[in-house]
């Protein structure tokens, strides 16, 4: 058996939660391999919206095992809140969720360090969600981190206090007032919630399940253009969001990766600061935001909107080894008479078709225009029934990337999904 991987190909918010929920009937195990509670995966079904932050998107599927992998950073407060919400819905969370010992814990002081550091940057802010993600990964790479497995140790409180005091000393360098008393109390309550769950040797468990013939779907958070190595640095997250991150975050060998599902919107969005070559500042951009309900699932922040960027999409398809493309929010473009796609950039008077190292310099997108389909495609359930203009758009993407578009979403609900 192989581990199949589903991940975003843009700056996050591509609709990974819905896709995982749609794909999960074919898998017995869903595993998150990186990221933290800054990622919100929205699932729409039974006329309700469910937002998951740290818990894998297979939690609503019967008999599915949901693993929070080694590469994830976990905030016990937010984890406990999420568990409480799921239990109110009648979900048997303790039977379905397993947490890797090597996943790192987000401390209350990590959140304070995040906020203090971002405030100190002034106009150079990177757009952090202030959930403590960056400082937690810094402690991980600095070999100072506190891990989920540590909550089982008799010396847990000693380790916690040692790391907390290190953070207090660092915070003294900032002109920043804070009080973690209330949040710290909630944090320790969250740790008690965490103790209720099966805490596993993640890499051994995943490989054992593979060897038993279980189908495993690895779920990424954020998007490939936010990868710490290959994204639009420094406006990126603190982990590897690309396919290779699944190997590191779950402890599986590269030769055990199977299908790679790459998810993208039919247009582009981005939350927070950072380069966005096809961003629209006109009424079209506002219309995309309004029709697409482009507001963060966790933060509520407005998403910047623009046309599809083929230069970036070909780049992320390449570095992830995508085998199947999944196009989301196709219906948002229903009413646009003309739809544009950036097929190249103009940088310093040169035409560039490869995603560049320096994305902060002046980039002018070079567009190809497509005739819009100008009709409601939400009720269509077969590819053959789409208008020709829509099929032309899809087939252009396939030609440019060299990868088939296997799934098309025409609305937020499970049923509004066409599998080709």
TrEMBL record:
Name used for this protein in its record: Adenylosuccinate synthetase
Main location: cytoplasm
Domain of life: Bacteria
Assigned keywords, A-Z: Cytoplasm, GTP-binding, Ligase, Magnesium, Metal-binding, Nucleotide-binding, Purine biosynthesis
Localization: Cytoplasm
Protein residues bound to substrate: 297-303
Function comment: Plays an important role in the de novo pathway of purine nucleotide biosynthesis. Catalyzes the first committed step in the biosynthesis of AMP from IMP.
Residues involved in IMP binding: 13-16, 38-41, 129, 143, 222, 237, 301
Coiled-coil ranges (or none): none
Cofactor: Mg(2+)
The keyword Magnesium appears for this protein: yes
EC number: 6.3.4.4
Active site positions, chain numbering: 13 (proton acceptor), 41 (proton donor), 140
Molecular function per GO: adenylosuccinate synthase activity; GTP binding; magnesium ion binding
Pfam families according to UniProt: Adenylsucc_synt (PF00709)
Residues that bind GTP: 12-18, 40-42, 303, 329-331, 409-411
Subunit structure: Homodimer.
Cofactor: record remark: Binds 1 Mg(2+) ion per subunit.
Binding site for Mg(2+): 13, 40
Reaction catalysis annotation: IMP + L-aspartate + GTP = N(6)-(1,2-dicarboxyethyl)-AMP + GDP + phosphate + 2 H(+)
Similarity comment text for this entry: Belongs to the adenylosuccinate synthetase family.
Gene Ontology biological process terms from the UniProt entry: 'de novo' AMP biosynthetic process; IMP metabolic process
Pathway: Purine metabolism; AMP biosynthesis via de novo pathway; AMP from IMP: step 1/2
């Amino acid at each position: 058996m192989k581990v199949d991987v589903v991940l975003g190909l843009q700056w996050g918010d591509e609709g990974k939660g819905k896709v995982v929920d749609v794909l999960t009937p074919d898998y017995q195990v869903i595993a998150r391999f990186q990221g933290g509670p800054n990622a919100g995966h929205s699932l729409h079904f039974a006329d309700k919206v469910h937002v998951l932050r740290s818990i894998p998107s297979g939690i609503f599927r019967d008999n599915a095992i949901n693993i929070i992998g080694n590469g994830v950073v976990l905030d016990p407060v937010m984890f406990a809140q999420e568990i409480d919400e799921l239990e109110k819905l009648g979900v048997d969370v303790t039977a379905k969720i397993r947490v890797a010992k090597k996943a790192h814990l987000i401390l209350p002081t990590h959140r304070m360090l995040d906020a203090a550091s971002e405030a100190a940057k002034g106009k150079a802010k990177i757009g952090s969600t202030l959930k403590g993600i960056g400082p937690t990964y810094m402690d991980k790479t600095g070999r100072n981190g506190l891990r989920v497995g540590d909550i089982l140790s008799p010396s847990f409180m000693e380790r916690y206090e040692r790391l907390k005091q290190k953070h207090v000393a660092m915070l003294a360098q900032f002109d920043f007032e804070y009080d973690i008393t209330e949040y710290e109390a909630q944090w320790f309550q969250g740790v008690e919630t965490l103790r209720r769950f099966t805490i596993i040797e993640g890499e051994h468990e995943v490989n054992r399940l593979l060897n038993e013939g279980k189908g495993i779907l690895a779920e990424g958070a954020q998007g490939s253009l936010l990868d710490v190595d290959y994204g639009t640095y420094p406006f990126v997250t603190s982990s590897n969001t690309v396919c290779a991150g699944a190997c590191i975050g779950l402890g599986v060998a590269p030769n055990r990766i199977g299908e790679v599902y790459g998810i993208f919107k039919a247009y582009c969005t981005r939350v927070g600061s950072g380069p966005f070559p096809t961003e629209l500042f006109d009424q079209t951009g506002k219309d995309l935001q309004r029709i697409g309900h482009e507001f963060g699932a966790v933060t509520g922040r407005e998403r910047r909107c623009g046309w599809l960027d083929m230069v970036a999409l070909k780049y992320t398809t390449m570095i992830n080894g995508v085998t199947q493309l999944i196009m989301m929010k196709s219906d948002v473009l229903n009413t646009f008479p003309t739809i544009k796609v950036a097929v190249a950039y103009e940088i310093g008077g040169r035409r560039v078709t490869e995603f560049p190292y320096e994305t902060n310099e002046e980039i002018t997108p070079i567009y190809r225009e497509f005739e819009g389909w100008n009709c409601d495609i939400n009720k269509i359930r077969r590819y053959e029934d789409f208008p020709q203009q829509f099929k032309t758009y899809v087939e252009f993407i396939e030609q440019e990337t060299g990868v088939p578009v296997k799934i098309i979403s025409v609305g937020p609900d499970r049923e509004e999904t066409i599998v080709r």
